[in-house]
Amino acid sequence: MPAPVIHCEGLGKRFRLYGKPSDRLLESILHTIGGRLAGNRANLGRDYWALRNISFTVSPGETVAIIGLNGSGKSTLLQLIAGILSPSEGVVRVKGRVAALLELGAGFHPEFSGLENIRISASVLGLKPKEIDQRLEAILAFADIGDFIDQPIKTYSSGMYVRLAFAISIHADPDILIVDEALSVGDMAFQSKCMARIRRFQQEGKALLFVSHDVGTVRALCDRAIYLDHGALIDIGATGSVVDHYLRDIHQKVDSGNQAVFVSDRTPSPQLLPTDKANDLSRRYADFLKSVQGMQYGSGQACIRLVELVDTDDLPLEIAEFDAVAKIRIWVECLASCTVSINYKIRDRNLIPVAGADFLITGQDLLEMSPGDSYWVEYSTRLPLMDGTYSIRVSVTIPIARHEQAVFVDVVEVCCPFKILPSHLGKIYTCAYLSNEVAIKAVE
């Protein structure tokens, strides 16, 4: 196994905070005087640890996401790795050339032209003047900002700034590329071009550290993820599981801020079990509960008791032909009055959503429930998916602004794993295949 290109061990960064700017100067003066006379230190400020006890490694060819809410320490960690900041404790070792695309405004001189900044930034990244000349045309073509290249950076829009910064970083041939949310300000065409270049960077076996609030991009792009919260490392591992942990924490914080949290008793009410099928349903429920342990959460007004994926004969569906008909059955019990949508997503092996539905998109009225109500909700759909393994995510939500936001009443992150076999018609190269009609006629 190749040696890590990034090694962090017990890493921490402490900042000194003051109530007013003059306290910083006064403390420094008193510290100097006190140190000479009595060895005492005047404390006019307080220590703030932006990061503490962070340990991980990144190997060549790995793409690692760093996720967390604002203020969690993501940017501080990247600046420590890039060498912009020095650690207060612990060690960080980096092997190879690092190109860091950090916060907007960092690294460029606003009074210098874009062309001048290319030469300065490329020199800082370790390129020699001859190498810069050889790559200049490619940098200009990638940035594609036209005559603005001769204008001062201070006249650039945020999109133009990112175009130039990314073009320099990627053409410096770094061993490690660090991207901190910068691509979010570019237009769609440029973002697509950047993503294509990042894919090529990955194929070349280079290491990438990626910070983004777009969890879809994180799932699609990254091999592993690091979840930070208030300067602490909360989770590290496979991208899908870490992102789910992060989203679960966010949903719980949002729900607890919006309303009282109801604690769900995971044992269904006895009267809700049909007497003629009680034993079978109880067994299925017990198996389901065991399979989703640790992956179910929510504010608790309702509880998902059971989710089943079945075929047209109502038999469990674990292996399906391409474009097979399937039914997703969801048993929901109400614990406190609520009006909800019951939703599902089909996700691939990286937990990236590829299909799904909810009440709003299907035109179904929201379901009004009172305590003790219990419902089976059944979605019938087809599975025109690329061959591979999939799972289902089910949620009960109270929609806000037509589902642009929602209160997550109950969520089961992963259940009902299944496999899609290759299509006999030919290889499917997209996540899902949309039915088409084809017409061909000769050109007259």
Descriptive notes:
- The protein is of the alpha/beta class and 444 residues long.
- Among the domains are: 1-96 and 215-258, 3-Layer(aba) Sandwich (Rossmann fold), CATH 3.40.50.300; 262-420, abc- transporter (atp binding component) like domain (Coagulation Factor XIII, Chain A, domain 1, Distorted Sandwich), CATH 2.70.50.60.
- It has 10 helices and 19 strands.
- The protein has helices spanning 21-37, 74-82, 114-124, 129-143, 158-171, 188-203, 215-221, 239-258, 278-291, 359-362; strands spanning 6-18, 45-58, 63-67, 89-94, 98-101, 176-180, 207-211, 224-229, 232-238, 296-297, 302-310, 319-320, 324-334, 338-348, 353-357, 367-369, 374-383, 388-400, 405-420.
- Strands 10, 12, 14, 15, 16, 18 and 19 form a 7-stranded mixed β-sheet that branches. A 6-stranded mixed β-sheet has the order 5-6-7-3-8-9, sandwiched between helices. The protein has a 3-stranded antiparallel β-sheet with strand order 2-1-4.
- A hairpin with a 4-residue loop joins strand 14 and strand 15.
- The protein is globular.
- Mean pLDDT is 86; it is low at 258-265.
- GO terms for molecular function: ABC-type transporter activity; ATP binding; ATP hydrolysis activity.
- Keywords: ATP-binding, Nucleotide-binding, Transport.
- Belongs to the ABC transporter superfamily.
